[in-house]
Structures are given as C-alpha cells and as structure tokens.
Amino acid sequence: MAQDLGRRSVGRGARGAFTLIELLVVIGIIGVLIGLTFAVGRGVLNSGKQRVTAETIKVLDLAMKEYIASREQVFPALASMPGATAFVVPMVDGVEAENRWNTAKGEWDYSLVPTTTWFIKTIQEYDRVEAADAAINGINPKLMRIEVPAPGEQAGLGQMQGKRVVPLDGWGNPIRMVHPKFDGIIGGNRNVGSGDQGSLIATADAGGNPPPLRRYLPNNIRRNWLSKADRQFNRERDGQGGVRWAQMRGDSDGGVCVGGMPYFYSGGADGDPSTADDNVYAITPQLPKDQ
Description:
The chain is 34% helix and 12% strand. It is α+β, with helices and mostly antiparallel strands. The chain has one domain. The model is unreliable at 5-11, 152-159, 188-219 and 242-246 (pLDDT under 50).
C-alpha cells in the first residue's frame, strides 16, 4: 500500500511540470499580450496627439476668419516683411526646388516654407488684427516653438527683425497653411525640382513682387505630391546611386482650397503630408486622387 501511494505521489509530480511546448505556448501568449498592450498604448498616444493638433488647427482657422472679417479680404498671397529692405514672402506650402541628400544625417534636406509662421507674424506685428491675435494667444504654449533665424539662414530671413513663432502639431512638426493662390500641385507629381539655387526665392524675395508670380514660382518652389506609383518607383530605385529613394516623401498634400479659403493642416503621425489618410484638417480640401 505504501509503495502504491509513493508511485501516485511521483505521478502527480510528473504531471505538474511544464513541457517545452507548454512553455513556448505561454511565452507566445505573453508576447501577444505585450504586443497588444503596446499597440493600444500607441493608439491612445496618437489619439491624444491628433486631438491637440485638431484643436490647434481650429484656433488657427478661427484666427484666419477673424483676419478676413476685419480686412474684408482673403489673407494676401504675398506676406509683407517691412524693414530697411522690403521683402515679400510667397505663402506657398512647399519646399525649395533644390533639395539634396544629406550624407551625414542619412536623410533628405527639406526646407519647408513656413507659411503659418508668416501668417502669425503678420496678424501679430505687420498687419495686426486684435481678434486674430487673441485667438492665436489661446494656443497651448508648449505647441509654439520660438525661433530666431541666424543671419544668412535663407534669403531675407537673416534680415528679419525679432523672433518667429512656429505652431507645432502633436508630433512636433510645423502646422502648414495652404493659400488658394498656390494650392494644388506645383512642379508635377514627381519628387524632383528645377531652378538655380542662387536665384531661389526660398521664403522671401528682395525688392518687390516677382512677376508673373504663377509662372515664376514653379522654377523655384516645389509643391509636389507623391502618388502610389511614385512610391513604387522610389522603392524600385532604393539603394541605387547612393540615394535612399524609398525615404522620399511628398512636399505637400497637393490639396486645393475649398471656396477660395486658405486652410491649415498637419502631416499626421508619419509626418508625410502626401499620405492624407492620417493628415489632420479643420477644413478638408479637395485632395488629388491616388491612381
């Protein structure tokens, strides 16, 4: 009888141990749960960033409406920058035509034309509208980056007096503004540019309005949009010629203003404005169709 009890005891101990397969299953389940936790966490985090971004864009949209109501006209396509030397700033949501691969950084150099920055500087300083300024002051200070351009940073910016304010989205990227004068696509769908670096207007042009503006800008400012076909082309070229083509992104959303009204937007979580599925808008523009 004692021997039988001993055998039953040993038997119970053997059944209580985990087999290798059972351990692997448990580890797999734990891995899945951890993955789900991170996914939910990222979703909640992005949701919060999207919410604060939408709130900031609504404030900017309100400031624009206050300006239009006060001046009884749409915000000018050329923002003036008064001073000893007069400058005009084309309100183009795009980049300089000459972008180069930065070997040290391992990425493209993109020079975003800070349209929203010039809008804020205009309504606060150059053509102040009190109601619009009051609206801007309602933006969370943590989402307002203060910059003082270094001399010679870009054409005209080095001579700009004082600071510039850059409103940011929840992901830390500048919120963009599109003017009806320069909406749609400038320069075609391909992420290539043309123009002489020495004559680029970049964010400002000395003297007066560069006539005729619509024909002059495409050679100096690029506002492209990458389609799925462009991205496939980039993937196929990835690694050739020492350039990581797959990392190229669109310059803008390629959107067209609705009703001739400027609009503000964010490139979303991926920071790519041409992938509009995660872009954040207060006023949704007419977007190009991805073929």
